[in-house]
Amino acid sequence: MDITAPIRPPENGRRRKRGSFVLRFLGFLFAAGMILFVAGAAVAAFFLWKVSQELPDYEVLAKYEPPVMTRLHANDGRLIAEYSRQRRIYVPITAIPDKVVQAFISAEDKNFYQHGGLDIQGIIRAVVTNLNNIQSGRRMVGASTITQQVAKNFLLTNDVTFERKLKEAILAIRIERAFTKDQILELYLNEIYLASGPTALPLPLSAIGTSPSPS
Predict the structure, then answer these.
(1) How many H helices and E strands in the chain?
(2) Which phi and psi (to 5°) does residue 7 adopt?
(3) Which candidate among 7, 137, 162, 192 keeps its CA 20 to 30 Å from the CA of 22?
(4) pTM of this structure
């Protein structure tokens, strides 16, 4: 027997070294991932806090007064004249036909009575649809709920920015907590733009079927 021949280390020793290296590497990846996650969460939390400090007061919606008509009546009650830039009469939700309400819900926000301001299913569906539309060159679709549209139309601008959409989402959640569904619908239906063409005046639901004002 040649006592000068090198002695090979046991196979199980090599496997233990490889296993310990893999575990250390996985531990490093896990620690790095946790650090990145915590840092990202901190940045997102700070951004949300900063945006929430700049939000308008949504409670003004409870005091909303649209620009309605000024009417002059004679002593006997006859209507003499009407003056307004927009022929509007604020219509309470109880006076709006149920079919009209259901038509708008069906077209704009099918899950209106189920969500709390944001329609998560609608957002996911819009993301998938838009990914397909980008490839086919079709028009992008949105996922704004009726509550989000109330937040945008009454309290925000029409700027197409991520910050504005984030403010809109936060306000929608707060509005849902402060107002009933009927109150939100009432605001929406009395303010929504129903005219056609860029030169037309805003025509709310309350103006449909009214006669022209005297010249």
Answers:
(1) 6, 2
(2) -100, 125
(3) 7
(4) 0.64
